[in-house]
Specification:
Blueprint lengths: L3 H15 L6 H13 L1 H30 L10 H28 L2 E4 L6 E4 L5 E4 L4 E5 L2 E15 L9 E4 L2 E14 L4 E13 L4 E4 L3 E5 L4 E5 L2 H7 L6 E8 H9 L5 E4 L2 H4 L2 E7 L4 H10 L3 E5 L2 E5 L1
Parallel strand pairs: 5-6, 13-16
Antiparallel strand pairs: 1-4, 2-3, 3-5, 4-5, 5-7, 6-7, 7-8, 8-9, 8-10, 10-11, 12-14, 15-16
């Protein structure tokens, strides 16, 4: 973790660079990644930006006041008090504006789903975001086209606006809409983006790629790759929008792990050989009984219920 003084110094450096002529989209992407990494980063940046803007306004006001100033009467004793009161009022206004900017960025609107829950958000421009199970998403309070996916999975159907691009920050990566329907899954170790329709730009610290329909990007903090998948794979990945999970020659271990995302009662595969068995078909996302029946009736496995766990073995 960086110290407060180090974060303040980095924020000041970003603010200074942002005002230079050499500023470009790549630098802006780096800035957004840095801001998304920690609350302290955003707080320092917006605090300095508010102070910077106020200093510029005060400089402009001073220039104007010097141009039109008149000499005050030498015997006036009330003038300094009035000036002090005016300065105090100005300070209150400045603090109010700065606080509004600070908390607007620091406190985006939070939307979350519980385990097994789904939720659909409709934005002001008609864009839609569907949240899958156990998902946490934030939308900037002052810009509905800026979103953070902290964890979980979300499907985005975005109205394209070239003048106001829509982008999602997921982990240390960013997805920029170019007229798009796309799916993002974010966990602690990896970001996965599947492009359903249109185009999107996927930006990581490693590189940036333009995604087209059928592309799935996989990214960690150190690496990124893009693979083309058949349409059926993408359709299967969106089965949760209809309350089902579609397995296509999926190992029992992977199927159990996927179902565990949607249910508080967890499936535990105890036997390595059983874990490697493969299944195929549609299963209700919020009901483990179907896969338990397959384990018992099709594979002849032993199933035991212990509290919130379903133990499967030979």
């Amino acid at each position: 973790m960086s110290s407060a003084s180090e974060i303040e110094s980095i924020a000041a450096n970003w603010l200074e660079r942002h005002g230079n002529e050499g500023w470009n989209d790549a630098l802006d992407a780096e800035l957004q990644v840095w801001l998304a990494e920690a609350y302290a980063h955003r707080a320092a940046y917006w605090r300095l930006k508010a102070a910077w803007n106020q200093a510029e306004r005060l400089a402009a006001l001073k220039s104007v006041s010097n141009e039109y100033s008149v000499e005050a009467p030498r015997n006036s004793k009330k003038r300094p008090l009035i000036l002090r009161m005016a300065a105090a009022c100005a300070a209150v206004v400045v603090l109010s504006v700065a606080a509004k900017l600070y908390f607007s960025e620091a406190e985006p609107r939070l939307y979350a789903t519980a385990v097994g829950e789904r939720k659909t958000l409709t934005l002001g421009d008609g864009s839609k975001i569907e949240l899958n199970t156990d998902t946490r998403l934030r939308i900037a309070a002052d810009d509905a086209r800026k979103v953070w996916l902290d964890r979980g999975e979300a499907y985005f159907e975005i109205k394209h606006d070239e003048a106001h691009p829509f982008y999602v920050i997921a982990g240390s990566h960013r997805v920029v809409d170019l007229g798009t329907k796309f799916l993002i899954r974010q966990d602690a170790a990896r970001t996965e983006v599947a492009l359903i329709q249109g185009r999107a730009r996927f930006e990581s610290r490693v590189k940036a790629e333009i995604l087209t329909p059928g592309d799935i990007a996989y990214a960690t903090a150190e690496a990124m790759s893009v693979r083309k998948r058949p349409a059926r794979t993408l359709v299967n990945a969106l089965g949760w929008r209809h309350g089902v999970i579609i397995f296509d020659r999926t190992t029992l271990a992977d199927a159990a792990a996927e179902l565990n995302r949607y249910n508080t009662k967890q499936i535990v595969i105890l036997d390595p050989a059983a874990a490697r068995l493969t299944i195929h078909g549609r299963f209700p996302s919020n009901d483990t009984s179907a896969i338990v029946n397959v384990a018992q009736d099709v594979f002849g496995l032993r199933v035991e219920h212990h509290g919130n766990e379903i133990l499967i073995s030979r």
